[in-house]
UniProtKB/TrEMBL annotation:
PANTHER family, per database record: GLUCOSYL/GLUCURONOSYL TRANSFERASES, GLYCOSYLTRANSFERASE
Keyword Transferase applies: yes
Keywords for the protein's UniProt record, in alphabetical order: Glycosyltransferase, Transferase
PROSITE patterns: UDPGT
Name of the protein described by the UniProt record: Glycosyltransferase
Broad EC category: transferase
SUPFAM superfamilies noted in UniProt: UDP-Glycosyltransferase/glycogen phosphorylase
CDD domains: GT1_Gtf-like
GO process terms (BP): (-)-secologanin biosynthetic process
């Protein structure tokens, strides 16, 4: 171990094993590597393999000698994670395996045996309180990173208030009733705009309890990092700061990374599936801002009926489209039945004439392509930020977690598009696409263009996120002594 390495802080970064989490925390890892902080990045075995297979992590991080990829031991659920039950299986097995492993990793004996510098602090995913427990036990400072929006986080955090006030449970009924007890969002949120977990009938269900208790533990962390920026979520952040004073907004991370690396505006994607770049060639042949990009992220699943409603709506709108249809978008009983696109869609001439379909797209590059003028999205937080940074208006069809809140903010607060939640009907799909891409195109593009400027300004020198990352780095230095 060199003398320099001994003087440097050594941060363990521990994301929840899901694409959006691993991806954005890897961007944070790179930002900290640029500040010469030593990083151990902890992932499950299957994510380790996917990172090596599908991303340029090896070449990208080879210039940072202080970066190490470390894997958790076997025994963690490796099946599908498209349903809440499956995600819970992953979460529970992760807790079991991680606890003894983290204890061992944080002990100084371990550092000596590995001839590395001891870990001086942890940045853990804000839903992994197992790391918080071990960090407190071993007296290692810990910072939380939330991969969701600040507005989504705050809605989660206020759930006990909703229960006390009798606003929950509502068991999926009368979804247009407005909610009074999310501080700062009074009358904005309806039942349908609360995080999807709030639709439960049983407040004792394991997934609901997990989400509730994980979020409530956040104030125990030394600091809280968000992938967002002040001009977008400043108002909500002012409420969060009352319970977690040490909040760092350093996003949009992918844009921030580009500023700090000082490279041209190229993709920072750490995609965990193989990207089909042929769609860029197709986009090159389209007119400016005429294509609707359709993608529901890495988790969302749809029924065959819903997929066909989208298809009819798309085709009837007459708008050109680039559509990501993941092989597992429609769940099947076994992998053999998996198929990227239903046959009837492929056979239809009109699909080829007006649309292009891929199994997985280079999303950042797609959104920054001049031909793209709209995004039909599931409102995942990474997708939302990527769209904001490129000034692309959105139609939101949220699936779960914070996406219900994000889509409400896109439609009603930021005015960056339309919220289509809880409906999947070809006539509505068609109408919303026409509104976004034709009738109200200028209005949405102008608003999205203004937010794009603010997003980019925040990650430039003297911008709020740029400044907050410097503050975070100073904080890590201080707590690591
Ligand atoms: N993504 C991609 N190609 C695709 C679809 C998605 O690279 O075809 C990336 C997208 O750029 C984003 C991430 O996958 O960074 C999805 O994260 P998000 O938070 O939006 O949704 P999740 O997958 O967690 O539901």
């Amino acid at each position: 171990m060199s003398e320099l390495a001994q003087l440097q802080p050594h941060v363990l970064i521990f994301p929840f094993p899901a694409q959006g989490h691993v991806n954005s925390m890897l961007k944070l890892a790179e930002l900290l590597c640029l500040a010469r902080i030593n990083i151990t990045y902890l992932v499950t075995l299957n994510f380790h393999d996917r990172l090596l297979l599908h991303t340029d992590i090896k070449s990208r991080f080879s210039k940072y000698p202080g970066f190490h990829l470390k894997t958790l031991p076997d025994g963690i659920y490796q099946g599908k994670t498209n349903t809440v039950d499956e995600v819970m299986m992953l979460y529970d097995s992760l807790r079991l395996v991680a606890k003894p492993f983290l204890r061992e990793l944080l002990s100084s004996d371990q550092a000596q045996s590995e001839k590395s510098s001891p870990i001086t602090s942890i940045i853990a995913d804000g839903i992994l309180s197992v790391a918080l427990d071990v960090a407190e036990e071993m007296d290692v400072p810990i910072i939380y990173f939330r991969t969701i929006s600040a507005c989504g986080f705050w809605a989660y955090f206020c759930i006990p208030q909703l229960i006390d006030a009798g606003e929950m449970p509502f068991a999926g009924k009368d979804m247009d009733v407005t909610i009074a007890n999310v501080t700062g969002m009074e009358r904005l949120l309806r039942r349908r705009d609360l995080p999807s977990f709030c639709r439960v009938q049983d407040l004792g269900s394991p997934d609901f309890r997990m989400v509730l208790s994980e979020t409530q533990k956040s104030p125990r962390a030394w600091g809280l990092i968000f992938n967002t920026f002040e001009d977008l979520e400043g108002s909500t952040l002012s409420h969060i700061r009352k319970i977690c004073p040490n909040v760092y907004t350093i996003g949009p991370l992918h844009a921030h990374l580009k500023t700090r690396i000082q490279s041209p505006w190229t993709s920072s994607s750490n995609s965990l599936w193989e990207e089909d770049r042929s769609c860029i060639g197709w986009l090159d042949q389209q007119h400016s801002q005429t294509v609707l990009y359709v993608s529901f992220g890495s988790f969302t699943v749809v029924t065959r009926e819903q997929l066909l409603e989208f298809w009819h709506g798309l085709v009837n709108s007459q708008v050109r489209f680039l559509w990501v249809i993941r092989p597992d978008l429609i769940p099947t009983k076994n992998d053999k039945e998996r198929k990227s696109t239903p046959e009837e869609l492929e056979l239809e001439e009109v699909t080829k004439e007006r649309g292009y379909m891929v199994g997985w797209a280079p999303q950042e590059d797609v959104l920054s392509h001049p031909a793209v003028g709209g995004f039909l999205t599931h409102s995942g937080w990474n997708s939302t930020l990527e769209s904001v940074v490129e000034g692309v208006p959105m139609i939101c069809w949220p699936y779960f977690a914070d996406q219900q809140v994000n889509s409400r903010f896109v439609g009603e607060v930021w005015k960056l598009g339309l919220d289509m939640k809880d409906t999947c009907d070809r006539a509505i799909v068609e109408k919303m696409i026409r509104d976004l891409m034709v009738e109200r195109k200028d209005e949405f593009l102008q608003r999205a263009g203004e937010m794009k400027k603010l997003a980019r300004k925040s990650t430039e020198k003297n911008g709020s996120s740029f400044h907050n990352l410097d503050r975070l780095i100073e904080g890590i230095m201080t707590i690591s002594i």
